[in-house]
Amino acid sequence: MSDNTTTHDKLPIRMLHDRVLVRSDVPEGERRSGGGILIPATAAVGKRLAWAEVVAVGQNVRGVEPGDRVLYDPEDRAEVEVGGATYVLMRERDLHAVAAERLEGSKDSTGLYL
Questions:
Q1: Going along the chain, which residue ranges are E strands?
Q2: Which CATH number fits the domain that encloses residue 97?
Q3: pTM to 2 decimals?
Q4: Ranked by mean pLDDT, which of 66-70, 72-76, 84-88 comes out on top?
Q5: Which domain holds residue 13?
């Protein structure tokens, strides 16, 4: 299986062009604040970006690799279910940031630890 291929029920799936398939870190339903307060799923939250793990990338994606963590806007997403798991499909240009150990010390690094 190559970097831009995943499987679904024994059929290979290849991402096309500049598409990125990610597994969202945003928990569905209730969540807890940093102080331990339970926040119900129905609570309105201001616009907030979310982190996700890259699962597969298309052949024209240059700045992201499978296994990287990326920052994206969860309101601008297209969800897809593959093998019972929900993933988010987006274009590379819709990503706001990439966090990966391979970027450490690069000239594009901000020095922030995420």
A1: 5-8, 11-14, 19-24, 31-32, 38-39, 50-57, 69-72, 78-82, 85-91, 95-99
A2: 2.30.33.40
A3: 0.68
A4: 66-70
A5: 5-26+45-102
